Amino acid sequence: MPKQRCLLAIHAHPDDESSKGAGTMARYASEGARVVLACATRGEAGDILNPRMERPGIKERIAEIREAELETACDILGVERVYQLGYRDSGMPGTEWNKHPDAFCNADETEAVGRIVEIIRRDKPDVVLGYDESRGYEHPDHVKVHEWGTEAFHAAGDPDRYPDAGDPWLPSKLYYFATFSKQRMLKLHEAATAEGIDSPYGGWLENWDEMGFEDPAITTQVNVHDFIEASHKALLAHATQIDPDSFWFALPIELHQRVYPWEDYTLVASSVDVQTPEHDLFEGID
Ligand SMILES: [Zn+2]
Question: By C-alpha distance, which of 224, 245, 220 is closest to 235?
């Protein structure tokens, strides 16, 4: 019997999984792949961004609530196993949160990488999804997911590293999420404007270069047409973070499906032969 396909996504905070690659996880889960998620922090530095959740008792239990929101979102997306690494949220760059000794950005590198290596060796993903350098955003937790996730991907296959963390397993491919791209935003913005819909992307597009956002190289586009609705539902499960009246939902699902039904990725490492552009993360593996 062929090995069951397995996809591992590594994220920084509860809700990142629903705003980056959610449709991809839902699609591959529906096609029978095992989808596994590792989330580094509990997101306790997150403000309550939904006025409906400005209620007593929420802020005090924010970490616990965000972990529960993550579980709900993962159920919606068909994620089979969720690893909550439980590090403390490092907060936005330049805040006091960055200095806390338990913050993810202050974790011991060997220990943090080792924990991700252990997950890779246990679940044996064929494909790993992680973060790029996060230029223009620079959230310390996202930067560390980039550095330590990439490091763990390579270390997991090396028998000399982390010998106590399980048998070596080198996933076939590593991708970075290329979700935040000017190309995608521009296409949605233009289509919305042409149809008389108030686009939420105008300001971002105007300030794109100034903000230092790097437009990612897109090597791979996964069609998630039938899973955009699920990804919106998963986002809404993060009730403390996501306002149902916010920009996330400003454009009709139908417009997303028609104009940009893809989730985008940058292929950064592969031990199998591939030709880009690709349309399937598992291309060349089976
Ligand atoms: Zn995040």
Answer: 245
Reduced to 3 states (helix: H, G, I; strand: E, B; else coil), residue 220 is: strand
224-267: per-residue pLDDT in tens? 999 999 999 999 999 999 999 998 899 999 999 999 999 999 99
Q: What DSSP designation does 214 have?
A: P
- CA 254/CA 22 separation, integer angstroms: 17
Express as a percent the part of the chain with pLDDT over 70.
100
| 12 Cα–ligand 1 center, Å | 5
- Residues in a beta bridge with 39: 11, 84
For residue 226, how far is its CA from the centre of ligand 1 (angstroms)?
25
Let me know if 264 is exposed, middle or buried by CB neighbors in 10 A (0-12, 13-18, 19+): buried
CA angle 79, 180, 263 (to 5 degrees): 45
Q: What separation, in Å, do the N-terminal and C-terminal C-alpha atoms of the chain show?
A: 12
Sign of the torsion formed by the C-alpha atoms of 76, 17, 65 and 247: negative
d(CA 73, CA 79): 9
Structure tokens that stand for 29 in this block: 């889960």
Distance of alpha carbon 159 from alpha carbon 164, whole angstroms: 10
Query: 142 CA to middle of ligand 1, Å?
Result: 6
Distance separating alpha carbons of residues 268 and 26, to the nearest angstrom: 22
Residues near ligand 1 ion, CB 5 Å cutoff: 12-13, 16
Cα separation, 78 vs 34, in Å, equals 9
